[in-house]
Amino acid sequence: MVAKVIEAAKPADPEIAALIAQGAALDAAAAPAPVDPAGNPVAPVDYRNEAAELVDLVCSSAEAIFVDTGLQFSEPTRAKLAAAWAPVMEKYGLTGAGLFGEYQAEVGAAIVTVPVFLAARKVVLSHRGKAEAAAGEVKPIDFAGADPAANDARQQ
Hints:
Blueprint: H1 2-9, H2 14-30, H3 47-65, H4 75-92, H5 96-99, H6 104-135, H7 148-155
């Protein structure tokens, strides 16, 4: 409340500005600590750590998905990304857990499953291609998300 008054008033007198700032500090110190719905104190969010964990998740997922490209995110790159995202997450009150809301479990499962599926798909396609080449025949493979035009071309 006082911060809004400071911004709106912008007193020219430094003594008044100091008094307003002192009042804002007292208001902030007197503000009740945040509590959860059960009334338990809520620990403050460490947005730097939240950002670092989210960046690690995204980078590790990208490395797993594009494993055959040799993509690697260095620790300094991850640290720079986390440092850039921490203020954004704090500004909007985002946490890794809160980012996905009620679908946190589903999104977490997908993040773990997709890279494994993609790696398995590459192995299956590689082995199948070798077997078809040895037998002199090409059979279509129909994975979800595959290019339908490519499947149609193989079937003809």
